[in-house]
């Protein structure tokens, strides 16, 4: 049997760009993209991507060159997910909330051949390029190759904004696929995308995805989430975040409609639900608060929501599902091509009370179909932890979803792998039914008097308080126990500024719901928690703030050491 060779007819490298070719054939006249009053069919989107890929090759973009883009969720960014790899290049979608200094750091590191920039971010991009050149005024010695700059004007309502001669629509119009046909994917291990980590726990690193990993992750997630053909998908999740959890390619695979909005505001999302009949969306838990705060009527038709990022508290899930959002919880990370665990729903759970269903739904779940394995291990022994729902270890992964490695960073790449496993840095437990529940980031576990405290568990208790809108818990110094929990709380609109909720009340509320050593010893009321562009709470900022806080006296008997303090406008030292 070993003598049977691979042939072109029975071995084709796996690549997510093949989904577009199929969509153009099978769903040719079905709407592919909607953006304001502008829409395209799958035939048109395929043709536009071919032309853009040809135009990139005409600009001397070669295999493995990086093409960067700074843009919100627009048709241009969607098209680049196919056109850039069709030109043989690697797509680098940059976080739109980064400032010029951080964009400059990525440009220096990635060294893109071309930088596309939406008209809204021209100032950030040009300031970043000046920094790359080595001087704030654009002078000085060039420290890194400067990319060609291409402006993306608004396709629905053009603004006329320009920097230089290159503009996206003009580039698409002049591309000639007959002269520059798509470059075939010869090796599925080739890079398809370069994504930089959020930097919430460490310095950002460039994560490289393979065509194979992106293809398999896309297929597995579509199947595991149960996405049927022709879904209407709302782009509430940034496409730059893990390539939209690979749904940039996944919507094409199912011949769906991409509803693009520049920002996930309540008005934009509710308008999309009503106008386009949205069936699916992805969202970080922070978007749930945006939807809840808008106080709209329950949806006329259910919307399937895949959520990830910070573990959503059960109380928050219960509230959002009353509006008509059917939530599936997932877990993932940039280094694993997005989602790597899904909380698959069991039919027998339907009979449980709402609070219990929400608690089960808040777990991270079971491994993605296309992972070879996922486990929770004691890193000292590399043995699996017991399935008791209590013994904590580190979540580890193995499979084609896992990144190729960190770009230009062999040491960090080597440190991320051990004994055939990728180390996630997340602490979790395994329940008797095999479902994994994340308890914390390893850096966020609070060690108080030798006891490990999960900040996630404390946050879940805080979210049960009827006045709490957002909550985050980090370690603060303690004169006797070393560390103790400190809670940062944002109140719901109707409670904020009313003076009805005190620090002592919140502490007492927690004492009735958890072991006393886990109770926050300090509660800081804030207007809003600091977050990055994907909705993750920036605990680095909160830890810095907590380190400046001090308890009034040693607390050896572990009583609640929190003086009553009414919620009021934040002081200069407490404002985030």
Automatic annotation (TrEMBL):
Instruction: Note the PROSITE patterns from the entry.
Output: AMP_BINDING (PS00455)
User: Organism's domain of life?
Assistant: Eukaryota
Enzyme Commission identifier(s):
6.2.1.12
Which InterPro entries does this one have?
Answer: AMP-bd_C (IPR025110), AMP-bd_C_sf (IPR045851), AMP-binding_CS (IPR020845), AMP-dep_synth/lig_dom (IPR000873), ANL_N_sf (IPR042099)
Provide the residue span(s) of the region labelled Disordered. Answer: 555-576
Cofactor(s) named in the record: Mg(2+)
GO molecular function per UniProt: 4-coumarate-CoA ligase activity; trans-cinnamate-CoA ligase activity
Database matches in SUPFAM superfamilies: Acetyl-CoA synthetase-like
AMP-binding enzyme C-terminal domain location, by residue?
457-536
Gene Ontology BP terms: phenylpropanoid metabolic process
List, alphabetically, the CDD domains matched: ttLC_FACS_AEE21_like (cd12118)
| Ranges of biased composition (kind: Low complexity) | 559-569
Task: Domain (AMP-dependent synthetase/ligase): give its ranges.
Answer: 21-407
Catalytic activity line of the entry: (E)-4-coumarate + ATP + CoA = (E)-4-coumaroyl-CoA + AMP + diphosphate; (E)-4-coumarate + ATP + H(+) = (E)-4-coumaroyl-AMP + diphosphate; (E)-4-coumaroyl-AMP + CoA = (E)-4-coumaroyl-CoA + AMP + H(+)
Going by the UniProt record, its keywords in alphabetical order are: Ligase, Magnesium
Q: Which NCBIfam families match?
A: PRK08162.1
- Into which family does the record put it? Belongs to the ATP-dependent AMP-binding enzyme family.
What name does the UniProt record give this protein? 4-coumarate--CoA ligase
